[in-house]
Design a protein that fits this description.
This protein is of the alpha+beta class. The protein is 36% helix and 21% strand. It has helices spanning 31-47, 66-71, 115-119, 121-129, 205-265, and strands at 54-57, 62-63, 79-83, 93-94, 105-109, 134-138, 145-151, 156-160, 168-170, 175-184, 187-195. A hairpin with a 4-residue loop joins strand 9 (168-170) and strand 10.
Length: 272
């Protein structure tokens, strides 16, 4: 008699990034919001282009529980950074597929339609469920930046006071965040920028290209100045040579006249 194996108790694996929705259908609030997100992600990607242990994402769903995944009731952070992971393309961040890794840093870009959620529901989820150590809020139109650090005792966020210039530190990333006036993709505004340990803005690709052009132009000007200096030195050397030849010619003429005089009239008194 043949028996069929009973597979009814075989656990069904939870869905992964290929099965879960990764687009919540909600576009960024404005052109400035979208460009601000792109700027923050681009600068970090370029800064860490040689690293393969970090992931920078934006406007991407972060799944932290199967129930939440089934309901698809959570919109992703505007910008987030995960350390000690593998740098690869992802459709969404699925915590149970990432060995339990959750974001180390989250940045939300405030708008009238999202601010209430960013300050309540998302803040609670980031603190109590995902335990994100650093949380930042930035309004692209007012230029106001807020920083929060996770208090492990209460599992809630405590405000972090900014520095004298309004900049804040990101201990997890060993970088800073500050608001700087500038132009990104043709739009001039007060942008939230990553800062290196010396307080310098971490450049975008456009800024790197512009800096390279300026360096090339400066090097060209230095080469041109050096060439002009070499030409001037050459002219000075030629003029000195001509003066030396003229002096030698005059000395030769004077010696010849002296010899002629002494031949005709004898040596001059005291001539030896």
């Amino acid at each position: 008699m043949a028996f069929q194996s009973d597979t009814s108790f075989v656990p069904i694996p939870p869905p992964g990034e290929d099965e879960l929705p990764y687009d919540d259908g909600e576009p960024m609030e404005s052109e400035r919001h979208r460009k601000q997100m792109d700027l923050l992600i681009e600068a970090l990607d370029l800064l860490w282009k040689e690293r393969d242990d970090v992931y920078v994402g934006g406007n991407m769903a972060v799944y932290f529980s199967e129930l939440q995944a089934k309901k698809n009731d959570f919109r992703g952070p505007d910008v987030f950074v995960v350390l000690d992971t593998v740098r690869r393309e992802r459709k969404s961040w699925v915590v149970w597929q990432e060995d339990g890794r959750t974001p180390d840093v989250v940045i939300e870009l405030l708008s009238e339609s999202t601010e209430a959620v960013d300050r309540t529901d998302k803040m609670r989820i980031y603190a109590k469920l995902l335990r994100v150590p650093e949380y930042y809020l930035f309004d692209p139109f007012t230029g106001v930046l807020e920083a929060y650090a996770l208090d492990l005792a209460t599992m809630a966020y405590a405000p972090v006071a900014p520095g004298a210039g309004g900049d804040v530190a990101s201990p997890r990333l060993h970088l800073g965040l500050g608001v700087r006036r500038g132009t990104y993709h043709g739009l001039e505004a007060d942008w939230l920028r990553w800062l290196d340990p010396e307080g310098r803005v971490v450049p975008t690709g456009e800024e790197q290209a512009r800096a390279a052009e300026e360096q090339a132009r400066a090097a060209e000007e230095q080469a041109r100045a050096a060439e002009e200096q070499a030409r001037a030195a050459e002219e000075q050397a030629r003029a000195a040579d001509e003066r030396a030849r003229a002096a030698q010619h005059e000395a030769t003429l004077l010696a010849a006249r002296l010899a002629e005089y002494e031949q005709r009239f004898g040596k001059l008194p005291g001539g030896g």
